[in-house]
Every structure is written in C-alpha cells, then in structure tokens.
C-alpha cells in the first residue's frame, strides 16, 4: 500500500464507487449521497488503508455496508415495511451479506456462480464479452461502445439479448432453473 493516499485512491476508484452506488439506489441524487457517505468513511478509516491488500474489495465492502445501514434506517423510520423506498434494488440487497454467511448460503452462492459461469461460457463471444465488460469490469455503456467500436444502442441491445439468452439457457437447465425468476 506504500505510496497510496486517499487522493490517488479517490481518483482511481471514484467512478467505480459511483456506478456501484447508482446500481444500488437506482437514483442519481441518492447515489451521490451514498457516495459521499462512503468517502467520508474512507477518510475516517484512512489508517486502515495501510493493511489493505485489495483496495477495490475494501471500498466495495464499505459501500455495501453503508448502503445496508442507510436502508435499515429508512425501514426503521417507516411504520410499515410496505413503505420501503421505491428506488430500492431488492435483488441487489439480497446479495449484500448480513453478518457471516451460513454454510448453505456459501454453497448456494458457489452453485450459482458455477452455473452462471458455465452459461456465460456458452454465450456467443460478442455477447459474453459485452456482459463481462459491463457486469464484471464495470465499464460504462460509452466505454464499451468505444472498446467494441459500436454504438451505445448496439451495446444496450447486446446486453439485453445476452441477458435474455442467459435466462433461456438457465430455464432449460434443471439445476439452474430454481435460481431464475420468472419476471
């Protein structure tokens, strides 16, 4: 970690954290608020940086925990759970670990990871590459369009088709079928 300070980390990971906040909140203003809270925690915990080997993972954990804490406060303030914020991305929230995962959780997550990876490997190269750029590398649509030398509309279309194809392949696979939502 030598030579790394808050400023260089911010410059390197600011866009990644913003996109993660945006995916969690699905709202530009809330994403900016969440991102501000995340960076405040990073600054407050600057001394912890010395022992961090994987900065991106450390920042992601801070972001997810901050999001979960904000969500819980919002739910506590609500009189009924039905009054949850409309922008909440529940499927992503379900992936946020709450305490230590159980052995069953770990096995299920491992099963899902293997199934999705095998289905991704079956996708046509152009769709697989687009999905990996967007979901794994966290590139923006503009960046993907530039990398692949196509229009943003083409990138969106490829992502849509890739997700549809993955869903179809998983529904046809008895092992994977239970993990796919009908919606």
TrEMBL record:
RNA polymerase sigma factor 70 region 4 type domain: from which residue to which, for each copy?
A: 115-166
- Tell me the InterPro entries matching this sequence: RNA_pol_sigma-70-like, RNA_pol_sigma-70_dom, RNA_pol_sigma70_r2, RNA_pol_sigma70_r4_t2, RNA_pol_sigma_r2, RNA_pol_sigma_r3/r4-like, WH-like_DNA-bd_sf
Presence of keyword Transcription: yes
Set out the biological process GO terms recorded for this chain's protein.
DNA-templated transcription initiation
User: From the UniProt record, which GO molecular function terms apply?
Assistant: DNA binding; sigma factor activity
UniProt key word DNA repair: no
Which CDD domains does this entry report, sorted A to Z? Sigma70_r4 (cd06171)
Print the keywords alphabetically: Sigma factor, Transcription, Transcription regulation
Question: Start and end of every RNA polymerase sigma-70 region domain?
Answer: 9-76
Give the UniProt family note.
Belongs to the sigma-70 factor family. ECF subfamily.
Listed name of the protein: RNA polymerase sigma factor sigM
Q: Look up and give the organism this protein is from.
A: Bhargavaea cecembensis DSE10
């Amino acid at each position: 970690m030598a030579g790394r300070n808050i400023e260089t980390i911010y410059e390197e990971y600011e866009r990644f954290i913003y996109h993660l906040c945006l995916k969690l909140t699905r709202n530009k203003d809330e994403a900016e608020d969440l991102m501000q809270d995340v960076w405040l925690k990073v600054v407050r915990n600057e001394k912890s940086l010395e022992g961090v080997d994987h900065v991106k993972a450390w920042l992601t954990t801070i972001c997810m925990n901050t999001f979960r804490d904000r969500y819980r406060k919002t739910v506590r303030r609500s009189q009924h759970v039905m009054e949850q914020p409309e922008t909440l991305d529940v499927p992503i929230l379900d992936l946020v670990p709450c305490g230590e995962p159980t052995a069953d959780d770990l096995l299920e997550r491992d099963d899902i990871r293997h199934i999705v990876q095998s289905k991704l490997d079956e996708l046509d190269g152009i769709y697989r590459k687009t999905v990996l750029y967007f979901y794994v590398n966290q590139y923006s649509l503009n960046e993907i369009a530039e990398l692949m030398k196509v229009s943003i509309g083409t990138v969106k279309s490829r992502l849509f088709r890739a997700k549809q194809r993955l869903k179809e392949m998983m529904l046809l696979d008895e092992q994977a079928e239970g993990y796919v939502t009908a919606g």
